[in-house]
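Sorry to interrupt, but I need a hand with the structure work. Please put the record directly below this note.
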Amino acid sequence: MITETITLILYMAGDVTEHTAFEKISKCLKTKRKIERNLYKKSTSVRYACENKTVVIEKNDDGSNYIVRIIE
């Protein structure tokens, strides 16, 4: 299924490494702040961003959704 969602994206050396979908921008920003505080505060090659992206979503066996890929 193709949908538009708020996505927390991990950029490492300019490439997308990981991505996670959120329903609200506030939850995405809260998670981003926690990660930056605890993990990658001083790294220059790592960047997190909350962006509105069009993505392909599929369902796990437990019924939860996950992002298969980002459509640019």
Summary: The chain has a mean pLDDT of 88.
